[in-house]
Amino acid sequence: MTRSPKRSPQRSPKRSPKGEAPREEPRTEPREKSPKRRRVVEPSRLAARDVLAEAVAGMLQRPGRSVLTALGTVLGVGTFVAILGLTATTSSQIDSRFNVLTATEVTVEDVARDQNEFADPAFPADADARIERLGGVEDAGVYWNVRLAPGTAVRSAPVGDGTGSERIDVVAASPGALRAAEPTLAQGRLYDEFASGSAQPVAVLGKAVADRLGITTLETSPAVFIGDEPFTVAGIIDDVKRRADVLMSVTVPRTTAEKLWGPPQQGDAKMLITTATGAAAQIAREAPVALRPDHPEYLKAVPPPDPRTLRAGVTDDLDQLFLLLAAVSLVIGAVGIANTTLVAVLERTGEIGLRRALGARGRHITVQFLTESGALGTMGGLVGTALGVSTVIAVALVRDWTPVMHTGTVVAAPAVGLVTGVVAGLYPAWRASRIEPAEALRR
């Protein structure tokens, strides 16, 4: 007997009372999904205008402190601009001096002993005349330091042995060598070709030597004594453009020195030649042949150095030194701003907590304090730039120079102040952003 499959039981409609139709159960509609909840509090925003307003208000709240804070940047940027400006100005003056003096000077040295140990001094007696016949030569002369016997002193009185007195150098020089030094006379005059040709006992003193010997005027015809030899003072030199050692020595004619103390020893004598602009290199090549056509190798002519190479070396050294000083000044200014900003953060802890409680984010606090420190740095940079430029102009006017300022320096200086202020405010701004509102409000 087969079993019929089980049927699932079906619910029979509920029977209504007699005379009423069967009642159906109400169908339930599927529920709609509830809409997403909207944020009630929008994230706070800080506009650039508000940031600037808050920064200005923070600086004006304590104007004295703001001025002192910016003072560090003023000094740093002002020093930066002044140093770079003075470096450029002095470099231009160095350029002109190199072009005028160094490029027109040739020195000839006696190297005969290096070539032949039995050779006599290389310079002939008429060395000045031979060189002055070359085209482009303005003045030329031989000079050397006289080697006096031990105990020989230079004094202004005939009595006394000079024991214990300071040593004074004696230089033998032809009239052309003195003229080539381009001296400025305080009194008297230089000895001439006649005095040199006749080996006259005359001397020219440097200003420093005259002061040490107590000679202040030539109206009384003073004399100096080199050992026991008297020399009439012909002139007193106040300044020179070349061979500054002349100011610290007694200069006598070359022929007089040879007559009293003998010719110069090997390697002592040199020749100073001044030339027209652009002729120095040619004169350096021609001088040894003109002086000693038989042995030009006995003489070594030293031409002037390349002014561009020399200028570049001096300028680089000055730039490195002065930029280091300017950087130190900027670091000092940055430390001052950082210290003052950090103190301001500690004093305004309650204000920071209130701002955080009202919805300000940590980055808003950071931006606010960075803006304040950046504004102080920029203000210091502008004032420092003005002071630096004024300093360069004032120094140039006093020294009768032409002020030189690079445009990039003037334009970049306020930006340097801004960067200095922002970098100095990084740590205080970070500290301010880490302050918790509840903890700040409890203080």
Automatic annotation (TrEMBL):
Protein name, as recorded: Putative ABC transport system permease protein
Key words, A-Z: Cell membrane, Membrane, Transmembrane, Transmembrane helix
Similarity section: Belongs to the ABC-4 integral membrane protein family.
Molecular function via GO: transmembrane transporter activity
TM region(s), chain numbering: 67-88, 321-346, 375-398, 404-427
Region listing for Disordered, in residue ranges: 1-41
Domain ABC3 transporter permease C-terminal per the UniProt entry, residue ranges: 324-437
Compositional bias (Basic residues): 1-16
Superkingdom, natural source: Bacteria
Signal peptide: none
InterPro entries with a match to the protein in the record: ABC3_permease_C, MacB_PCD, Macrolide_Exporter_MacB
Membrane topology, from the record: Multi-pass membrane protein
Species for this entry: Streptomyces nymphaeiformis
MacB-like periplasmic core domain mapped to chain residues: 66-286
Cellular component terms (Gene Ontology): plasma membrane
Coiled coil region boundaries: none
Sequence ranges of Basic and acidic residues compositional bias: 17-33
Cellular compartment(s): Cell membrane
